[in-house]
Design brief:
about 250 residues; alpha/beta; 8-stranded parallel beta barrel; binds 2-phosphoglycolic acid; about 40% helix
Length: about 250
């Protein structure tokens, strides 16, 4: 039985004050039987950590350096995140792949740095509109999953895959329930061949891309949809909590 995991990706939004208020409002309203996390901008992680201490809200990071520390101006390493109480971190978000041009090799390095440090890894995959239109969706997703090394990643509880079709992110246009389920089932099957079917059955697969209160119930009730990675709708307590409650 997979417990659903709803994570808010705040991206480069909010202020210190609004981050604290939002985290506090979410932390006090988390129902049972669902995992909930938020990934604030780096500079607000510490402030958020102090207001959610002792609550069930999991603290996350949106990105991390692939280096363990040292002379890398402007970067944040995984020991720093752990120091602040961060429990999960994203790798391969489409905005890093497509806007910041992170290569599959860099994404792969980051994924293994995150996992090897003991954090939960949310590895993001998903096709562009052009790739969907040319029937490349499953090939793209398979190749992005192949960035993960099964000899390093051995705990299915600390691996989460976020399927985020690029054309659905921030556009208001979500995948249909069937489109999401089709790719999620393919992801689970692929994980089964990379690891084994038992491992694959324990990995949570989140959907992301214009997930909002109005479409949450349908998407989250698909058999292979085990949660969501939420951008825009995670910036307000009401809409984020409505999605959280749709997952219970
Ligand atoms: P969105 O973003 O919910 O605003 O579409 C999702 C994401 O990028 O994780």
């Amino acid at each position: 039985m997979r417990i659903k995991f709803i994570a808010g990706n705040w991206k480069m939004n909010l202020t210190k004050t609004s981050s604290i208020e939002l985290a506090r409002a979410i932390a006090r309203a988390i129902p049972n039987n669902v995992e909930v996390g938020v990934a604030p901008p780096f500079v607000y992680i510490d402030a958020v950590a102090s207001v959610i201490a002792g609550s069930k809200l999991l603290l996350g990071a949106q990105d991390v350096s692939c280096e363990p520390g040292g002379a890398f101006t402007g970067e944040i390493c995984v020991p720093m995140l752990k120091d602040l109480g961060v429990r999960f971190c994203l790798s391969g978000h489409s905005e890093r792949r497509h806007i910041r041009h992170e290569s599959p090799d860099l994404v792969s390095k980051k994924a293994h740095v995150i996992y090897s440090a003991g954090l939960t890894l949310i590895h993001c995959v998903g096709e562009t509109l052009q790739e969907r239109d040319s029937n490349q969706t499953l090939n793209v997703v398979r190749s992005q999953l192949s960035e993960l090394n099964p000899t390093i990643i051995s705990d299915p509880n600390r691996l989460v895959i976020a399927y985020e079709p690029v054309w659905a992110i921030g556009t208001g246009r979500n995948a249909t329930d069937q489109q999401a389920q089709e790719v999620h089932a393919f992801i689970r099957q692929t994980l089964g061949s990379m690891w084994n079917p038992d491992f694959a059955s324990r990995v949570r697969i989140q959907y992301g891309g214009s997930l909002k209160p109005e479409n949450a119930k349908g998407l989250l009730s698909q058999p292979d949809v085990d949660g969501g990675l939420i951008g825009g709708a995670s910036l307000k307590a009401d809409s984020f909590l409505a999605i959280v409650n749709a997952a219970v």
